[in-house]
Design goal:
alpha/beta, binds magnesium ion, three-stranded parallel sheet, binds adenosine monophosphate, globular, single chain, 15% strand, 12 strands, 313 residues, DHBP synthase, 33% helix, 2 domains, 9 helices, nine-stranded mixed sheet
């Protein structure tokens, strides 16, 4: 059985590499969320991603590479960018740096910017497929734009599987929220999007982050995002009829619908998008989510929840 599983996986991975080479789209598992992947150097393939997701073209994509050597081929890394790459790659950190090679990551993928967003994913099969393909792969979350990110194979296929020529089942995503996006530009290090690597973990490597409002220069941070169809609000109880409470911590609602019964932020992140989707299917009247502390991974969870509820810009 094990040998058969391995064989099936190898066949799926070869089909994915061939699809990328042919300019087609691929459902690609990563440790953060499932991605919809394409050859970053191919504008036709990249255009198909924007089309499949219904994503506005001003929202640039992240180039996923197999290792730091390939990263330095496409972007310009100073000492602090190198320190962050060394500390967190492979893993859920995206670095935005000046672009070095405008062809390996095409203009459309960068939304015409002079910078490029790069990450080496932690998921072993994602890295193997990218390495076998031999170049950077853009892989935004596999959801249609504005909807919750898929963190299971079934959810990814349901969202954009129809647009993909190949799909890899890599199991449930271990992290469950998107990568942290940090820019290292003009000697300044700024947090553009909170994510799986925490602010404190980044500051421990490169000192205090710049607070000059650089975050607002990240395109594509839309007010209403990650949102199910059911209305979402942050509240300690489910007040309205038919509304479900997603709890957090001991004594907070039905354990079946708890992001983490013990109040563990890692568990809550891993459950967040899957549970929002399940709640959406079963409780279309509305979803209340119990308050989650704002430290550590909680910053990323609250960022996604505020956007799912539609109240930040
Ligand atoms: P995702 O939607 O997960 O694919 O993440 C892509 C996000 O990374 C975008 O929404 C931007 O906020 C950010 N990003 C990507 N490229 C750049 C860039 N060149 N400059 C600033 N932010 C970027
Ligand atoms: Mg996304």
């Amino acid at each position: 059985m094990r040998a058969r599983d391995d064989l099936g996986a190898a066949t799926a991975d070869r089909a994915a590499v061939a699809a990328l080479g042919a300019g087609r789209l691929v459902i690609l598992p990563t440790e953060t969320v499932y991605g919809l992947a394409a050859d970053a150097s191919n504008p036709v393939a990249v255009a198909a991603i924007f089309e499949a997701k219904g994503r506005p073209r001003f929202n640039p994509l992240i180039a996923h590479v197999a290792d730091a050597v390939e990263a330095e081929r496409i972007g310009v890394f100073d000492d602090r960018a190198r320190a962050l790459a060394a500390a967190f790659w492979p893993g859920p950190l995206t670095l935005v740096v000046p672009v070095r090679d405008r062809d390996r990551v095409c203009d459309l993928a960068r939304a015409g910017l002079d910078s490029v967003a790069i990450r080496v994913p932690g998921h072993r099969r994602a890295r193997a497929v990218i390495a076998a393909f031999g170049g950077p792969v853009v892989a935004p979350s596999a959801n249609r734009s504005g909807r919750p990110s898929p963190t299971t194979y079934a959810d990814a296929v349901e969202e954009t599987g129809g647009a993909a020529a190949a799909a890899i089942d890599g199991g449930d995503c271990a992290v469950g929220v998107e990568s942290t996006v940090v820019s290292v530009l003009n000697g300044r290090v700024s947090l553009l999007r909170p994510g799986a690597v925490t602010r404190a973990e980044i500051e421990a490597r490169v000192g205090a982050l710049d607070t000059g409002g650089e975050g607002h220069r990240s395109p594509g941070r839309l007010a209403l995002h990650y949102a199910p169809d059911a209305p979402v609000r942050i509240a300690a109880t489910a007040a309205r009829g038919g509304e479900i409470l997603l709890g957090f911590g001991p004594g907070s609602g039905d354990p079946r619908w708890s992001l983490s019964p013990t109040g563990d932020l890692r568990e809550a992140a891993a459950n967040l998008f899957r549970m929002l989707r399940e709640a959406d299917r079963e409780h279309p009247a509305g979803i209340a989510v119990a308050p989650v502390p704002d430290h550590g991974l909680g910053e990323a969870i609250n960022d996604r929840l505020r956007r799912a509820a539609g109240f930040v810009g």
